[in-house]
Structure formats: structure tokens, C-alpha cells
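Reopening this one. Same input as before:
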Amino acid sequence: MAGMLADMEEQAKALVGGDKAEPKKDGRTKADFSRAMDYIKDLQNLPDDSPIKQGFACFCKWGVKPLIIITMAYIWVGKQLYKVYKMLPINIINIIFGVGLCFFGGVYFTAIAAVEAARNLGGADMWDHLTTCWNEAGEVAVASQADDKVDANKNSIADVEEMSTNELINHKARVALMAVKDPQRLQKAIVSLLNVYVAVIATLKYQFAKTVAIALGIADMLSLPITRVVGPVLFAVMGKDLHHWVPTIIDTTVKFIAVFIASYIQAIISAFYSGLRGGQLVAVAIFNIATERGWMEKLPDSLVSKPFDPDKSYLDECIQYPLAAVGFYVQITRGFTLDFPLNLICLPLTIVEWFLRFQVYT
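Same output, byte for byte:
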């Protein structure tokens, strides 16, 4: 007890200033956060020719600018496709989406599952919220383009070109805020979309968890037999100094392969489902068009009952199932990949797919 009181007295003296605090045993006198802040402050004093600034300038010149140009190109293509989407009849759109599902559904199985989950969890409200965000973003874009032409001091140079980076960011933020006329509506739309996103991710995690759990269980059972086969070879390659890494490397590799196989199996299941779903969309759309134009009434009574009732006819199944079978076969034989130029056209969707896979499988 006396020793504890003596230690407390020495600590009190150090706090008052009577004694200097002894450095920590690891030699650090500051917390990690303080040391990180000091490092960031030191970056302000770097010379212009420092490797960090040169590397960042090179990245901005050869990395960011091309990325911005590519993004703008995809945005322009997206706008044109949206205009075509607004002009086309709904049955033609269903045929296009149906064919896409039949032949490419397995490539984007996570995105398709996310869309199905979003339809069940948000549906029409989600589309209204997306429309709200799109319209407000369009107003901001128009206001920003008009602001780029403003020359308040009449010196034949746009004001935005005379601003520093910080001033430009603050100015554009103010322009964007002024362009939004109903911020509460935009806030409600964004919050609703975030809620749908969280619900979709949770649903997908639960949906794919069973497949991943089975795969990891199989991996645990295979780790020991594979270690007995591969372990001696890997031990000889890594040597005695690194032999303790052998079980970890084998176990991680086996689990990675198991999850990859699980995702491939999920792609097969999704390809089968998307083939049936796409074939159904195409068949229903075709018969809707034929009914609207009176073609079904011209067919023989032995083939189509009059008046035509799609629920009592098997003609739609005659289109749905063969198309689904062809689409499923094409996806399996191509290994769930897209050929050029489809892989380039669908690059934004591919990025979304892999982002969702990362969210679901981690």
C-alpha cells in the first residue's frame, strides 16, 4: 500500500510540473494520432519537386483526367439510352431486357438479385426517389454550366478560372445548394434510397450466406488432406524460417477457392433463373404486341382459342422455354463472360456488380 501511495505521489508531482514524465518503454512520447497529424503537417513543407508531389501531379494528369473524360462519355451514352427508353413502347423494352437476361443474367447475378430485392422492398417509391435525385442533379448541372460563363468583372475571363482550388470548391458548392429548390424533398429521397440499399445488402447477405457457409464448411474439411499433400512441397520452398506460414497459406487459399466456386455455382443458379425470367418477359411482350395488332385473331382456331386468353394457351411457353435453354447454354459455354465490345459497353454495370459482390461476400 505504501508503494502505491508513493507512485501516486510521484505521478501527481509530474502532472504539476515538478518532475518530467518519463518516456514510454517503446520510445514514443506521442499518441499515434498526434504523430499522424505531425506527418500531415510536414507534408505542407515539401518542395515542388518532391517525389510525392510529382507522383500526385502525374496521377492527376494521366489518371484523373482520362477517368473524368471516360465517365462523362458513359454519362452521355446513358442519357441517350434513357431518351431511347422513354420513346420505346413498354413491350419492346421488355423484349430487350428479356433477351439480356437470357444471355447475360449469370454475369450480373448479384446486380439482378439486388434489383429483385429492391423491387420487393421499395418498388415504385424507389423509382420516384431516383427520379427526384436525377432531376435535382440536372438542375445543379444546368446552374453550374451557367455559372462557368459568368464574368462579373468584365475582363473577358470567366470568374471560375480566376479562383483558387479552395475558392472554386466553395463557390460550386454554393451554386449547387442554390440550385436545389426543395432540399427537404431531396433529403427524403436520399434517405429512402439509403434505407433501400441497406435492406438490399442485408437481404443479399442472407441469400448468399448459405452458399458461402457450405463452401467454407467444405474448405475446413479439405484443409487437412490438402495440407498433407501440398504441405511438404510448400515447406521445402519456404524453408525453416517461414514454415509456420504453411498452414495459414493453405487454409486461406482453400477458402478463397471454395468461395470462388460458391460464387460460380451461384452464377449457374442465377443464369438458370434469369433465362426463365427473360424468356417469360420476351414471350409475354410478343403476345401482347400480337394481341394489340390483331394477329392472334387471324391464327387458326385449332392453334389459338378465340378469344385469345394467354392463361389458357401454351404458346408463350413454346417461346419462353426454348429461349431460356439457348440463353442458359450460351452463358455456360462462355463461362459467364462478355465478349468485346459488350464488355466495354457494360463496364459501368460490371463495376456495380463487383462492388455489390464485395459488399455481400465481405
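So the earlier flakiness isn't reproducible anymore. For the record, The mean pLDDT is 75.
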